[in-house]
Write a structure and sequence with these properties.
Layout (H helix, E strand, L loop, with lengths): L41 E3 L4 E3 L39 E3 L4 E15 L2 E8 L7 E4 L4 E8 L24 E3 L21 E7 L7 E6 L6 H7 L3 E5 L7 H4 L2 E10 L21 E4 L6 E4 L4 E8 L6 E4 L5 E6 L2 E9 L1 E4 L4 E7 L4 E7 L11 E8 L27 E10 L13 E4 L18 E8 L5 E5 L4 E6 L2 E9 L1 E4 L3 E8 L8 E4 L2 H5 L3 E3 L1
Parallel strand pairs: 3-6, 4-7, 6-11, 12-15, 14-22, 23-25
Antiparallel strand pairs: 1-2, 4-5, 7-9, 8-10, 10-11, 12-13, 15-20, 16-19, 17-18, 17-20, 21-22, 23-24, 25-30, 26-29, 26-31, 27-28, 27-30, 31-32
């Protein structure tokens, strides 16, 4: 793998950049990006969204090439393109306590970055519609799988990727039932069928930013990479904070765009090996434009829906003010120049626009055991008459109380590891196994049994040379230690980076719901190849 893992521009075709390169969007001026070195080891509460060393290229620079196979120009035409204003997905809201909607899964054509792609998506769009409800509401979703029948036979090893047109639906981060027709990821929703999903949201559920995506083992990676994801906002957080209530909200779903020489994702080899996106996207757009007035404050709900890459994100010339992580309010606002956002994580930030100009939001170099992709994500154009707005001086108390020592009823230790071939960059994905406690996932095996009402402390140990992203369904957890070092202030999350050759210690309350759920690495190729357990 090349040391330069920036995602592509004109180099999609394996050629140097040409004159059809995109230009920055119009603005009064383009602000140059200075070479910075961020403080290593800084963090948003508890190391969940880590700040680290790095510098990035000029905001006027085009995406550059990396090591993905070049596309034959005669097979997949590439048209000239320019950044366009950010488009947000359609919004569907609960009415009288019920959010009743249909989601239709089907093939669609999606134009991005000069390419016309043939992908899977919800309701004819990438990403899917934004669902907005409140604590105590009920989600009633009819999921229609209008994909064609699976062409491949069921493999002897059902742990390998297969049946890419079979699906289901997971509401990531919600504290809801994992059983029956609720947030049950053991359901198989076959092509040509319609399925009912009903998920009551508890009346005391935290308000915040969540999301939905497919989770059928064997097809989830292909489907998520295709663009099957959408925001799920539980409304009501920070309603009593006037500075946040006055801020315009933007939903930003970050993704990696991958496709083969036909502009499709029909084979698992298209998303393997690791770290090979052709470019990055926001709301299914390449380098979209966000517009603000000087001094204006906006709330950006960032949802990291990449299939396997951690993304380090600075916004040139601006500070990112974090107010929530993984849908749970932070105890205080953390102001950072850069965030590391891992697959599955959400982070809510306030952005206060500076002076007139054009600024770049980009992914910058990050070592996750191999280089993560880098390159422009979006542009911020600050223009027009000033709109002076204030940032909040303080945040309300978080909705979930800290877990005390005297609450603990047990502890566990889980180990993440992998079995890899001797020459992994050139190896077939079937030669890899990603393991928890030295075992690949088995659909019929229960790995952890926990009593309802238990309060436990878990240590997740990573013995692999790559970072992993730990996520558990149904119950959030409070991170207390990273690599054995106690955090000054524990942080509530449902998805956390476990450093390579390191560990994360957290505490969790197993409340309200019984049934089978899963824990897994949210680098979806690792999950598909075995790094998952049943609880």
């Amino acid at each position: 793998m090349s040391d330069d893992n920036r995602v592509d521009g004109a180099a999609d075709l394996g050629q140097p950049p040409t004159t059809d390169r995109p230009t920055p969007p119009p603005g009064r001026s383009v602000q140059p990006v200075s070479r910075r070195r961020f403080a290593a080891g800084g963090a948003f509460v508890g190391g969940a969204l880590l700040l680290g060393a790095g510098a990035w290229r000029s905001a006027t620079a085009q995406d550059a090439t990396h090591e993905m196979d070049p596309l034959p120009a005669a097979t997949l035409p590439r048209r000239h393109w320019q950044p366009a204003d950010l488009t947000e997905p359609a919004v569907r809201r609960a009415v009288a306590g019920v959010l009743r909607t249909d989601l239709r899964l089907a093939y669609l054509y999606h134009d991005i970055g000069g390419y016309r792609l043939h992908l899977r998506g919800y309701d004819g769009g990438i990403p899917g519609p934004t669902l907005r409800a409140r604590p105590g509401d009920v989600l009633r979703i009819g999921l229609g799988n209008d994909l064609p029948p699976n062409a491949d036979p069921l493999p002897l090893n059902g742990d390998l990727p297969h049946h890419f047109n079979t699906t289901n639906l997971h509401v990531h981060g919600l504290h809801v039932s994992p059983a029956g027709i609720a947030d049950n990821v053991f359901r198989s929703m076959e092509p040509g069928q319609r399925y009912d999903i009903e998920i009551p949201i508890p009346v005391d559920h935290p308000s915040g930013t969540f999301w939905y995506h497919p989770h059928h083992h064997g097809s989830a990676d292909i489907q998520l990479t295709s663009g099957m994801a959408g925001a799920l906002v539980v409304e009501g957080d920070f309603a009593e904070v006037p500075e946040i209530a006055a801020a315009r909200e933007r939903v930003l779903i970050l993704s990696e765009v991958l496709f083969d020489h036909l502009g499709a994702i029909e084979h698992y080899e298209t998303v393997w090996p690791e770290a090979v996106p052709r470019f990055l996207a926001v709301n299914g757009q390449r380098q979209p434009i966000l517009r603000m007035r000087p001094g204006e404050v906006q709330r950006w709900r960032l949802i990291q829906a990449a299939h396997e890459s951690n993304l380090r994100l600075p916004l040139d010339g601006h500070v990112l003010h974090t107010i929530a992580a993984d849908g749970i309010q932070a105890p205080r606002m953390a102001s950072e120049e850069s965030l590391l956002c891992a697959p599955g994580q959400r982070v809510d930030v306030l952005v206060q626009a500076g002076g007139p100009g054009t600024y770049g939001l980009a992914a910058v170099p990050n070592d996750q055991g191999y280089p993560s992709p880098t390159g422009p994500l979006a542009w911020l154009v600050v223009e027009g008459e000033p709109r002076p707005m204030a940032l909040p001086a303080a945040l309300p108390a978080p909705p979930l109380p800290t877990i005390r020592d005297d609450e603990l009823t047990g502890s566990r230790r889980l180990t993440l590891s992998a079995v890899e071939p001797e020459f992994p960059p050139a190896a077939d994905y079937q030669e890899f196994s990603f393991l928890i406690d030295d075992k690949r996932f088995d659909h019929d095996r229960v790995d952890q049994r926990v009593n309802l009402g238990a309060v436990e402390e878990w240590m997740i140990v990573n013995e692999h040379h790559d970072d992993h992203v730990f996520h558990i369904h149904t119950n959030p957890f409070q991170v207390t230690r990273i690599n054995g070092a106690r955090l000054a202030e524990p942080v509530w999350q449902d998805t956390v980076v476990v450093p390579r050759d390191g560990s994360v210690t957290y505490r969790s309350r197993f409340l309200d719901f019984t049934g089978k759920l899963v824990l897994h690495c949210h680098m979806m190729n690792h999950e598909e190849l075995g790094m998952m357990q049943t609880v």
